[in-house]
Specification:
The protein is built from 14 helices and eight strands. It folds into two domains: 227 residues; 181 residues, Nucleotide cyclase, GGDEF domain (Alpha-Beta Plaits).
Length: 441
């Protein structure tokens, strides 16, 4: 048989990539919504402060800055318009989120440009009604940094750099214009000299680079987390809910192959004896509770011995040791798990935790085809081959010979068992050669 050997990440990646890209796009819009909400709240607060300044400005402020009230009118108008704009932007992002669509990239750049231009307009208003020197050195310049920091929430390096570029270029253009037109009194103000103004613009650019770097790190971490969760989800859907977390972690770390291939495995079939007669006089709830009590410790024991529960068969199950992972001791693990399960059932019987219960276990090892079977709607990791059929037949023979564990000769040899008893050499339906079966002492 031709082996198909793509790695698990390569097999799952197309679906995973689409899934986490959709989730990342949604998260980006949610971040944009949070960002404009923060800005809107801050603008509203400043707007209220401007109103209070306009109507209740102390005489000392008016005497020092005679055009204060006139300037606050225009500043208030700017803040009011900006507040309305941010509310509309928030509504727009909400609409895109609800419709599960992404806004055109140009809209995001226009949004960044308009927001970053607001403090520039604020500086011009300040300069028009007060001293231009005070305007370019006023706390308004910190609003640039505020927008640059918030650009991190865009999770986009280019947008962060674009925001810082707009801030730096607009601030430097306005400052140099005032400087060239001799509107800046720089003689005794080193902070208003050209090198200082240029350096301040450079800091804006550096801030954008840092914000972009942080955004990139957040984005990469987010994508890796989503990818890891999706990989785990895919693995759990393929291997079932009863694969131990340790097995899933190993599958993720080792990039184990899960497509069709031949593996040497040891197969266990387990059956609960006289289950039909037991369940005949019991309510469904009692039957389920009984099965859950047994399966709980049985699953745990199989997992602890590096096996997986491949199928539940009503009153029993099929377990596999050696696929999809093997530690080279598959038969030893299967025998050990069988003994531990038998001992646990005995312990529960003696403690009265379950009604008197007996089980039958059949083990056989050999080559089998392992891999995914099904369609895109429903896939199952399964093991197919003569080894499975013979393990099932051996388990059925436990009833005939009154034994609780029967193993094949192949398991006997590979598990290096010395305490055993040969039961019989039997002919199994569908096989030409007879099979030796053994019981453990």
């Amino acid at each position: 048989m031709k082996h198909i050997r793509p790695k698990i990440l390569d097999l799952l990646m197309p679906g995973i990539r689409n899934s986490f890209q959709d989730e990342f796009s949604r998260q980006t819009l949610l971040n944009e919504k949070k960002r404009v909400t923060i800005i809107a709240v801050l603008v509203f607060f400043i707007f209220i402060m401007q109103l209070m300044l306009h109507f209740f400005a102390p005489d000392s402020i008016i005497s020092k800055y005679p055009n204060t009230k006139e300037g606050t009118k225009y500043a208030g108008l700017l803040l009011g318009l900006f507040f309305i704009y941010e509310l509309l932007a928030r509504k727009g992002f909400s609409t895109f989120i609800e419709n599960k669509k992404q806004p055109p990239e140009i809209i995001r750049y226009m949004n960044a440009f308009l927001e970053t231009t607001v403090p520039s307009v604020g500086i011009l208003i300040f300069a028009n009604f007060q001293n231009p020197t005070d305007a370019i050195l006023s706390p308004i310049i910190f609003v640039y940094f505020f927008f640059i920091m918030l650009s991190t929430l865009r999770l986009n390096l280019k947008l962060s750099l674009f925001t810082s570029f707009i801030a730096a270029s607009e601030y430097l253009t306005i400052s140099l214009y005032f400087y060239q037109t001799n509107q800046i009194q720089s003689g005794n103000l080193i902070s208003a000299e050209v090198p200082t103004l240029v350096l301040r613009a450079v800091f804006f650019l550096i801030g954008g680079g840092i914000s972009g770097f942080v955004a990139t790190q957040i984005k990469d971490g987010f994508l890796k987390s989503i990818e890891s969760l999706e990989e785990r989800k895919q693995l759990m859907s393929i291997f079932g809910q009863h694969v131990s977390p340790e097995v899933v972690d190993k599958l993720l770390n080792q990039n184990v192959e899960i497509e069709s291939e031949i593996k040497h495995v040891c197969v266990m079939f387990l059956d609960i004896r006289n289950f039909t007669s037991f369940s005949e006089n019991k309510s469904p709830v009692e039957v389920v509770n009984f099965l859950n009590t047994l399966f709980e410790f049985m699953i745990q024991i199989v997992n602890q011995n590096n096996g997986i529960i491949n199928k539940f068969l009503g009153d029993g199950f099929m377990a596999v040791f050696g696929a999809p992972l093997s530690n080279g001791k598959d038969c030893v693990n299967a025998v050990q798990a069988s003994k531990e399960i038998l001992e646990k059932v005995k312990e529960f019987n003696q403690a009265g935790k379950i009604p008197p219960t007996k089980i039958g276990i059949g083990l056989h090892s050999g080559d089998a085809v392992t891999g995914n079977v099904g369609s895109d709607l429903r896939k199952e990791y399964t093991v197919i081959g003569d080894v499975v059929n013979l393990a099932s037949r051996i388990e059925q023979l436990t009833k005939q010979y009154g034994e609780q564990i029967l193993i094949s000769e192949d398991v006997l040899q590979k598990a290096n068992i010395f305490d055993y008893r040969e039961i019989d050499t039997v002919r199994v339906k569908g096989r030409i050669h007879p099979v030796k079966i053994y019981s453990l002492l």
